[in-house]
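Worked example 2:
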Amino acid sequence: MLKNVTVGTATAAPGAKAKGVIEVAPLATGEMVTLPVHIINGAKDGPRLWVNAAIHGNEFNGVISALRLVDKLNPAELSGVVIITPISNPLAFFAKTRFTPHDGGNLGESYPGKPVGPITKQIAYHHLNEIKRNADYLIDLHASGVTNCSKSYSVLKYAGHPATEKRALELLLANGIHLNCSVDTLGKNDEPVPLTGSLDMECMALGIPSFMLELGHANRVEEEIVQSGLFGLENSMRHLGMVDGEVTVFADQIITTERFIVRCTESGLAVQACKPHDYVNAGDILTRIYDSFGTLLEEVRAEKDMHIISLKEDCVATSGDRVVFGAA
């Protein structure tokens, strides 16, 4: 049955759009911390898709993709509801930093949050409470780190919720990402950051299919990436039956089952021998390390057949540095 949808201060009637904020807590200045929210409430019944971006404040491509989706959607032609939080950590976003400057918190590791506690935990708490009340699916838009050369890829975390995980994978593939990394969070992992406390894992535990799209690079807006992110969101909606049109099916999508870090043992100048999304065989050279006189010190080689997710972008390497992030 069609009904009004309320998120934070925003309420949208069927067939209408609305915008408002999710209030969190006041700062010492008296200014209220708020998350902007958009609701597009369709004129026909259907699922509720939540699109989220900027959990890390320096990841911009997803923000622009999400806002363009708001602009394009016509509620009169929509089945279901789309809810968009384009800037879910406004404190970090407007400071152009990955983490919240007020407490150093990583919102990506802070869910389900706390009603009283560090401000990052409070953001997570109020954000997730609204998602729990309103979402059937959630797509979480991120970007690759600032020191890595990367292309867009996805992350789907498995934690023992097979029915939800199956629905998440089907929706994920509709986004047209070439390299899709599934991660068994219950097994052995070699991950660059902790997996616990992430929004997508909390949603999956609640029965809300969810995953992360790593759209391009942090610290910049890349128009081609923004456009591909927008197309993926629209195709996801076609997959869910929320908008008319034939679902685009993408060929040659890769699904990997493990991720791992490749490190150098020598210090010096790192020169990469491969590119993001390359497929390399065991024994292939990934990176060469030279000293400052140009003498070759080390050839970092693949220990197994693997796909390249990302590479160290600068050339200054210290022994033990991550030079390649791979998947198999």
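The radius of gyration is 21 Å. The helical segments are 61-72, 90-95, 119-134, 162-173, 199-205, 223-239.
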